[in-house]
Amino acid sequence: MKHLFRLLLLVTLARPSWLAQAAGPDFVEQVRPIFANHCFECHGPELQESNYRLDIRTRALGSGDRGQPIVAGASKSSPLIRYVLREDDETAMPPDGAGNALSAEQVQILRDWIDAGAEWPDEVAGDENARLTTDHWSFQPVTNPTPPASSSAW
């Protein structure tokens, strides 16, 4: 019993590397800065291309126009990884002209985070009731246009 207690104490204090890796990258320190620096311009509070946001947990882990980009626990099944690897010109993220491509290290951080379960702390979850802001025609309010004063223009 005495040896078991010592072993448990040692494991608790030493925290083996395999245990630290299982937790995945820290969202606030490692993952969110990647999103903020490379993704928020098109998928953040001001603009949501493809009806997708990466600044609010429920929206980021949900779906956009192209389905569900982040599949928690499965980076190989997560389209987000294919997007940031820029394997296809049509879905390459960030797109040409919208910023620098992610480094191999940044892509690996996203893979590790997704594989570890895509944990996103409540403290930085964002307001899930935030209004969608986009200039896409399908999200604009319906209006009743006023006909021109001259009927000949019609």
3D structure, described in words:
The chain is mostly helical. It has 7 helices and no strands. About 5% of the residues have low confidence.
Brief summary of the model shown:
With 154 residues, this protein is mainly α. The protein has seven helices and no strands.
Count every beta strand, where a strand is a DSSP E run of 2 or more residues.
Answer: 0
Strand content: under 5%
Topology as H/E string? HHHHHHH
Which regions are unreliable across 5 or more consecutive residues at pLDDT < 50? 15-21
Radius of gyration: 22 Å
Mean pLDDT value: 82
Share of helix, binned: 25-40%
Q: Count of helices?
A: 7
Classification by helices and strands: mainly alpha
Shape: elongated
**Which oligomeric state applies?**
single chain
Main sheet properties: none
Distance between the amino and carboxyl termini: 92 Å
Helices and strands in order:
Elements (H helix, E strand, L loop, with lengths): L1 H13 L2 H7 L3 H12 L1 H4 L13 H4 L18 H7 L18 H12 L39
Helix pairs in contact: 3-7
Give structural attributes.
single chain; 154 residues; mainly alpha; elongated
